[in-house]
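Incident log, support desk, overnight shift.

02:14 A customer reports that sequence design results differ from what the structure should imply. Their input is reproduced verbatim below. On-call engineer (initials T.W.) acknowledged and began investigating.
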């Protein structure tokens, strides 16, 4: 039992350590290059663009700033260099000045370690340059700038691990070297996670583009399989190739010491031959050398160069800090209770980790209520006697800590586990203050629960400087903590679903594939006929588990968030805040609908079989189609071979399935209208009655046809429907012991054939 708990704590502690990083650190030689430019006011792409696009930490800083300013790649700008010109100059200056510098603390003085960091950055440069070259020669149209940035940031997980856990990282690299192994494998062995997962979570937190986030996450996976159903993963294929070529060329150091082998399957998938890749490898060293000069990676005195630049920047930073302090004081004076709720709600996003959301709450609580030190902590995981807490000291300095709950203590005091009360903290959570490295005045410290769904998911303790505030703000405290708890409950649920999704991805992303299978041609030359399936039992079991967990963990917090957002929207006067609150409400409703779709697909209602008249069933399906498409009478022609035909099915499920198919058929006409013909055939001696649904719409090619019945697959543009129509139909027909076949050809239409049992069969199927 103790070993299981330890295994669970290790990745949790890693996440806590990584969570303390608000950005990556840059090298001293790099800081020495851009600091003088900032002081001289050289804030243009010509002065800073090449440096920013060559160094991972600076690139991340600009991406974070772009998100705050609603700029995106490649819609608003085509590169980070161009983004520098689009962003306000003072924000670029402040963001780059705030970048931490690696190797300036006592623990980082070791020259070999600093050299290791330099070589890791050089490897990042090599992967970036190589990825850009591969994208430019690939026949498929793949954005080479995105590929370059994906290659540059593919190793941010390792950069973060080296910063947060330098000794552990050094031991892992040493073991990888002694065993001629991949650092990825050694990390999985000792940490229970790896740099791709850590990099993905950092990318989400720092709002990197989705294509780059996928490349960071998937470039060590079997990305050839994944890219077949996820075109966005093609960049991950390119980064995977680029990483291999960079390592084979011996440029920089990635921390892996296994023998890198080029994947011929990946190259073939991208339509690139080995001669082209060898040519890229031969020219890579010269390209990286030029980029290294821009960053000063080969400077003999990087520390001295940095300290000189830093000395010149101190006065400017002091002025900025004074200005920020004054503005902060003014904001605290002008803020109100409603501002706290609004800013907290808008200050986090759907991917914020729970402890990060807790930190936002603690900071705003101290600012708005003018309290002393604040501690917000979350209830421990079900089988762990430990918890996460965030402490905001005076002057708004925050830190995250990991605490142990004594065996004889309750994490949340019994009196406030289900009720809102304000208690004296020293009488109930003395064990917590014993572990905090913070000097709370316990005689002034109060504790309140964070209640979500009538149970405490955490608590907030704070120094009440003015005793009279207790009665003055009692109701405000209750309202604020209830809304905050709903948001934190949402974040906790999201984190659980992240774990579910990663387990789910591992389950389905790496199917066994015979070595002699070749990619199917994309061009559709003949009509294809398939027997769609809804997946293996393990696929549905995993999907049902995820869907059930999602519904249980997310629906209640979602309804609270939606309701609170609507309440705030009704009393808010600022148009921009009203727009954002309305968007939050719309997004929560959309998430709820997605969860409902998953639940219905994974665990549909138990079928109720009965002998059912086919003509009546088809009439009901046409009526349901009219409701779905919001038309009075859809253009559907029904041809019955003979009256009185019946089948033994759940009529409601089959009506729903046919209506989904009819809707798809009617929508297939690019002109906006067309006829769908329905024919019923089968003699009395046949075991099944066949229903054929035919349209003359746009049709489907072979690739689309193979995926037509997959959940959430759609060939419509992003943002349109969720692609569950044929998936539902196939699932429901399967549950009714029926068969579904699809025949289609681009430009010639589609025929969907449904075979339903005429008489009762063994229906003891599972969902």
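02:41 Re-run completed on a clean worker. Output:
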């Amino acid at each position: 039992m103790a070993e299981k708990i330890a295994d669970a704590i290790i990745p949790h502690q890693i996440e806590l350590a990584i969570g303390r990083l608000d950005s990556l650190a840059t090298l001293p030689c790099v800081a020495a290059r851009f600091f003088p430019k900032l002081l001289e006011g050289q804030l243009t792409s010509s002065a800073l663009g090449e440096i920013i696009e060559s160094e991972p930490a600076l690139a991340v800083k600009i991406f974070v700033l772009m998100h705050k300013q609603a700029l995106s790649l490649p819609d608003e700008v085509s590169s980070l260099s161009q983004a520098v010109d689009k962003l306000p100059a003072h924000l670029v200056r402040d963001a780059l000045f705030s970048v931490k510098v690696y190797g300036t603390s006592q623990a980082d003085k070791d020259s070999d370690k600093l050299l290791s960091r330099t070589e890791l950055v050089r490897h990042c440069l090599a992967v970036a340059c190589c990825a850009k070259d591969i994208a430019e020669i690939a026949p498929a149209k793949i954005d080479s700038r995105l590929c370059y940035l994906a290659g540059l940031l593919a190793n941010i997980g390792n950069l973060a691990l080296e910063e947060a856990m330098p000794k552990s990282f050094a031991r892992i690299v040493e073991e990888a070297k002694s065993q001629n192994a991949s650092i990825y494998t050694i990390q999985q062995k000792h940490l229970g996670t790896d740099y791709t997962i850590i990099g993905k979570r950092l990318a989400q937190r720092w709002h990197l583009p989705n294509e780059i986030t996928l490349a960071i996450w998937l470039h060590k996976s079997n990305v050839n399989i994944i890219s077949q159903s996820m075109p966005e993963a093609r960049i991950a294929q390119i980064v995977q190739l680029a990483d291999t070529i960079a390592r084979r060329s011996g440029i920089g150091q990635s921390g892996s010491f296994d023998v890198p082998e080029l994947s011929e399957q990946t190259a073939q998938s991208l339509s690139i031959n080995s001669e082209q890749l060898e040519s890229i490898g031969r020219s890579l060293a010269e390209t990286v050398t030029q980029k290294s000069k821009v960053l000063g990676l080969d400077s003999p005195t990087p520390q001295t160069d940095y300290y000189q630049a830093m000395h010149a920047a101190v006065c400017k930073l002091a002025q900025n800090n004074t200005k920020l302090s004054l503005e902060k004081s003014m904001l605290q004076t002008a803020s109100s209770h409603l501002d706290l709720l609004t800013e907290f709600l808008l200050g986090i996003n759907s991917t914020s980790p729970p402890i990060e959301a807790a930190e936002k709450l603690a900071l705003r609580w101290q600012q708005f209520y003018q309290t002393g030190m604040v501690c917000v902590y979350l209830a421990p995981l079900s089988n762990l006697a430990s918890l996460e807490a965030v402490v905001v000291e005076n002057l708004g300095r925050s830190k995250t800590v990991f605490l142990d709950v004594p065996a004889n203590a309750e994490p949340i005091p019994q009196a406030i586990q289900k009720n809102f009360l304000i208690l004296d903290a020293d009488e109930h959570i003395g064990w917590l203050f014993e572990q905090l490295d913070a000097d709370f005045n316990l005689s002034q410290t109060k504790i309140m629960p964070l209640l979500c769904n009538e149970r405490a998911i955490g608590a907030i303790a704070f120094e009440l400087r003015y005793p009279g505030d207790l009665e003055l703000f009692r109701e405000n405290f209750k309202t604020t903590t209830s809304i905050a708890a709903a948001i934190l409950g949402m974040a906790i649920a999201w984190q659980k679903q992240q774990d579910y999704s990663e387990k789910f991805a591992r389950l389905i992303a790496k199917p066994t594939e015979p070595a002699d299978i070749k990619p199917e041609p994309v061009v559709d030359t003949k009509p294809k006929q398939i027997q769609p399936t809804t997946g293996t039992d393990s696929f549905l079991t995993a999907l049902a588990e995820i869907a059930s967990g999602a519904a249980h963990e997310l629906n209640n917090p979602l309804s609270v968030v939606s309701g609170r957002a609507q309440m705030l929207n009704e009393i808010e006067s600022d148009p921009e805040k009203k727009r954002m609150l309305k968007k939050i409400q719309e997004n929560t409703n959309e998430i709820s609908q997605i969860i409902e779709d998953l639940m219905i697909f994974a665990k549909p209602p138990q079928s109720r079989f009965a002998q059912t008249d086919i003509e009546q069933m088809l009439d009901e399906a046409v009526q349901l189609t009219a409701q779905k498409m919001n038309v009075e009478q859809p253009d559907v022609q029904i041809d019955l071979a003979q009256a009185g035909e019946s089948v033994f099915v759940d009529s409601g499920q089959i009506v729903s399935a046919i209506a989904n198919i009819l809707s798809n058929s009617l929508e297939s006409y690019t002109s906006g209208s067309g006829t769908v013909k329905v024919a019923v055939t089968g003699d009395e001696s046949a075991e099944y009655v066949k229903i054929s649904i035919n349209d003359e719409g746009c049709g489907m090619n072979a690739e689309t046809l193979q995926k037509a019945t997959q959940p959430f697959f759609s060939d419509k543009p992003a943002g349109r429907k969720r692609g569950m129509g044929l998936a539902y139909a196939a699932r429901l027909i399967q549950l009714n012991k029926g068969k579904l076949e699809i025949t289609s050809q681009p430009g010639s239409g589609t025929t969907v054939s449904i075979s339903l049992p005429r008489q009762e069969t063994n229906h003891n199927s599972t969902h």
